[in-house]
Amino acid sequence: MNVVAETAATTRPLQTAVGKTGQPGGDAAKHAVILLSGGLDSATTLAIARSQGFACHCLSLDYGQRHRAELSAAARVASSLGADSHRILQLDLAGFGGSALTDENIAVPTSGLAPGIPVTYVPARNTIMLSLALAWAEVLAASDIFVGVNAVDYSGYPDCRPEFIQAFEAMANLATKAAVEGLPLHIHAPLINLSKAAIIRQGSQLGVDYGLTVSCYQADERGRACGACESCRLRRAGFQAAGLADPTIYR
């Protein structure tokens, strides 16, 4: 009970007004919740959802990450791509630590990949984020959640694999009032089998301004990238392979 009370107290919704906020049953549009980190992949995912006719409600998580500049990027992206609403929830995963992204005492790797799952993996992060998205989707009477996980050009995180997404969708359809009463939920992971170059090409065709996004694991407060972490290297290689200019600002 204490854990539940502490979690509720530290999860505070902050509303960022972006366009028209859809209400459950308010119009004929299909409503979807989009997990929006502020990075390249999630921005592309939002653009894809919009292109498919969804009214998009973006959810970002301020979880104590080292690269908090991505939250400002998420707000910029949501506004640029015409999201219907954008919320940032505060949840202190840094209180647990266990990741280079949430513990200042663990260095972000800036050289080649080490064997195994890297220290930038945040324990259960995607499970937590999808669970929060699921809760909001029920409130919105939305049957769709979009997440920008990728299992091709990625860091090997276990919660980015297709089998995880499939398992979470199955769980969601067992665990929610909406699904039990006949409104099944679908988890969309449109980037999961794409290379970084293919993601960038598709997003560019859909009008994503990648100069608004922040991917770096240790971006400074102005969003300037280190150019050396794995996320920076994957991003740079993706633009090179796509044959497009990289708008990333490096410090």
Tell me what the structure shows:
- The protein is an alpha/beta fold and 251 residues long.
- The protein has a single domain, classed as Rossmann fold.
- Helix content is 36%, strand content 12%.
- It has a 6-stranded mixed β-sheet, with helices on both faces.
- The N terminus is likely disordered.
What brief labels describe this structure?
Rossmann fold, 6 strands, 6-stranded mixed β-sheet, single chain
Average pLDDT works out at 88
Widest sheet: strand ordering: 1-4-3-2-5-6
CATH top level label: Alpha Beta
Helix content: 25-40%
Shape verdict: globular
Secondary-structure element order, N to C: HEEHEHEHEHHEHH
Topology (elements, then pairings):
Blueprint: H1 2-10, E1 13-16, E2 30-35, H2 40-51, E3 54-62, H3 69-80, E4 85-90, H4 125-140, E5 144-146, H5 162-175, H6 177-180, E6 186-188, H7 196-205, H8 230-242
Parallel strand pairs: 2-3, 2-5, 3-4, 5-6
Antiparallel strand pairs: 1-4
Helix pairs in contact: 2-7, 7-8
